[in-house]
């Protein structure tokens, strides 16, 4: 995500149900033209100040917002993942999200039931998903929080798997039910431990609360955001440099050392 | 507010747990009067035990370990749509007398303010068996009409559910009949204070009882689950 900012990519459309500070950083950096989302902010803190400046004042650039609820983002991605133009739902009746929405339309039930809404497919050009482990072909194991990771990986034209570790393919084959993304859908595999920080990765990283709170405080002003951007993004070449800049003590506090292993599942034929 | 939220959960119910304060309220209910409640979280997690340690978000590792299932967002939303959820929690920035919540955008203060958006709020409002709303109680937030209905309240043609209870920083209110009626005010709060802080007419008797203060068990759980007062101290005020 920081590399997208460093490469000065522009005019991006961001898609996600609930973003944490990732969307806010990209928006405040001026990389984003449009957001398709249900919630943009700082989950523990509240407001996303970069998002607010873009939406309210057009700073650093104007932002087009396609408002959704979580379920309609999920259904849009699921429709694309299923190769369908839309999926029907009852969510949204009586509210303003569905009113005049470019991607949500009222429809009749062909079987005579009550009316519902069609949520048009959302097909990303690229999905970037972070998983615990993958083989070199992109067959990816992930566990814990799934959210819409799997739908996004299936829906996108290209999927990039970022993993904590690349493992031999017999590790993946030992537990095929945990393969949430089959490798033939994957365009690239990146081994980047800590690549999801400050977010948590179950079994690998705790949530870096302090960074979320510090960003929330700094990003209140454009100057504060710029100082954040310089220190944590522009002045660092890559993710290992980010971890070095955090310092060993901070990294080790976040790294999960204990083990709570799942019971083995017997796949013997 | 956390205690009042927890008390809205009845034992054995399936609960759609929202972001922020309800995370703690669900744990509190589980630890006290509703040990058999089951919690659905919109990131796909299903738990029948409180989180193992303090959490800021439903995705934090202590809310994953010991879960009974980690599904996807669409899976738990599908259960909600199917009618499997008894009660859901939603926080709002603005509310009107029908229990419509706005968390999207407002010009109520004179200039445009962008709020984070629906999250799962709009879905819970549409699809849960009943909803419990959580609000800061300030006149600018209690409006005759909200600028944008993110999470629909009571309206003609509603097929299921609707707002049952509103919990605010000042009291607890019944919304089940499509109007706002105070059922209790928090200790130290007067009915006049509530009327002054509400930007529309509400029903509140001068004899409205005080909210039952937290019990020893409830306080003990909160001190254990939120040791630094992130959710229950002053830190979250004004957000």
Structure description:
The complex is a heterodimer of chains A (269) and B (239). By secondary structure, chain A is α/β, with parallel strands linked by helices. Chain A has helices at 2-6, 21-28, 49-57, 70-81, 149-155, 169-173, 209-218, 222-234, 239-246, 248-254, and strands spanning 12-19, 32-40, 64-67, 86-89, 104-107, 116-120, 126-134, 140-141, 158-166, 179-181, 186-191. A five-stranded mixed beta sheet of chain A has the order 10-8-7-9-11. Chain A has a three-stranded parallel beta sheet with strand order 1-2-3, sandwiched between helices. A three-stranded antiparallel beta sheet of chain A has the order 4-6-5. In chain A, α2 packs across α3 (49-57) and α4 (70-81) crosses α5. The model of chain A has no long low-confidence stretch (mean pLDDT 97). Chain B contains seven helices and 13 strands. In chain B, the strands form three sheets. Chain B has a nine-stranded mixed beta sheet with strand order 4-3-2-1-5-10-11-12-13, with helices on both faces. In chain B, β8 (105-106) and β9 form a beta hairpin. The longest helix of chain B is centred in the first third of the chain and has 11 residues, at 21-31. The chains are: A alpha/beta (269), B alpha/beta (239). Chains A and B meet through β2, α3, α4 and α5 of A and α4, β9 and α5 of B.
Number of helices of chain A: 10
Q: Which spans of chain B of ≥5 residues are poorly predicted at pLDDT below 50?
A: 235-239
Tally of discrete structural domains of chain B: 1
Q: Could you state the order of secondary-structure elements of chain A as H and E? A: HEHEHEHEEEEEHEHEEHHHH
How many β strands of chain A by DSSP?
A: 11
Radius of gyration of chain B over all CA atoms, rounded: 17 Å
Global outline of chain B: globular
Q: What percent of residues of chain A are in strands? A: 15-25%
> What percent strand of chain B?
15-25%
Helix share bin of chain B: 10-25%
What top-tier CATH class of chain B fits best? Alpha Beta
In which order are the strands of the major sheet of chain A placed? 10-8-7-9-11
The fourth-level CATH homologous superfamily of chain B is Glutaconate Coenzyme A-transferase
CATH architect. name of chain B: 3-Layer(aba) Sandwich
- SS class of chain B: alpha/beta
Please tally the β strands of chain B and state the result.
13
**Through-space gap between termini of chain A:** 43 Å
Taking strands numbered 1, 2, ... along the chain, how are they ordered across the largest sheet of chain B? 4-3-2-1-5-10-11-12-13
Count of helix runs of chain B: 7
Overall residue-averaged pLDDT value of chain A: 97
Named CATH topology of chain B:
Glutaconate Coenzyme A-transferase
